[in-house]
Specification:
It comes from Xylocopa violacea (Violet carpenter bee). With 199 residues, this protein is an alpha+beta fold. The protein contains three helices and eight strands. It has helices at 27-47, 80-95, 181-196; strands at 52-55, 60-65, 70-73, 104-115, 118-128, 141-150, 160-165, 172-173. Strands 4-5-6-7-8 form a five-stranded antiparallel sheet. Strands 1-2-3 form a three-stranded antiparallel sheet. The protein starts with 26 loop residues before the first helix and ends with a helix.
Length: 199
Amino acid sequence: MILCNRRSIYNIRPEHNDHVYHSYRSTTDFIGRYVNQAVLNALNIINNLGDLTFDNESDLATRKLGYFGNQWPTCGSFNAQNGLESVINEMKSWNALPALKDWMFHATFISLQYKNSVEIYSYQILWSVPTPAYPEPQVTVSVYFYIAISHIYPPLFPADVTYIFEGQQFAHSLNMIFRPKWLYDILDMKTIMFKTFDF
C-alpha cells in the first residue's frame, strides 16, 4: 500500500539491474511523479507535431510529417481533395526511390466515415510495374491510407495518417521508414499465384 509506513515481507520483489523501481513515501511523491510524466508525454507529442506552415490565400495549415517530410493538412484544414494531394505527394516520394523507379501508381479517394467526433478518410493506391511485354500490368499491389481527423483536437493538430498493404493487418505510420521490399513481396506472391491459374 502506498500510504503504509511499514514494509510487509510479502511485498519484496527481486530487483533487476536493468529495471528501475520507484518507491513512494507519500501520496505527494506519487502525484508529483505522475504529473511530471504527464508533462513529459505532452512535450514529446508537441515535439512530434512537425513544422507548421500557413497558406494565407487558401487558409490551409500544413505540417511536415513522416520520414520523407511531406506537407499534410492539419485537422482544421483537411478535406478529401487536399488529402488526396498529400497522399499523391507521399507516393511520389516512394516512387523517387531507386528500387521503385520503374513502378507506376494511381491514387483514388474511397470513402469518408464518421465515428463519434472523428472523420476517417480512406484512399487506395494501386502500384504496378508496366513492361513492354505487358504495358497493362496483370498484377497490381494495393496500399490503403487511412487518415483520421479529430474534431476534439485543436485545429492545428496534425492528422493521424496510417497505411496498410493489401492482405496484411499491420498499420504503418508515416514515421516508419518505408521499405520497397514490402511492395515487391506482395507483387512476387501475386505473380506466383497468377502463374498457377489456368484460363
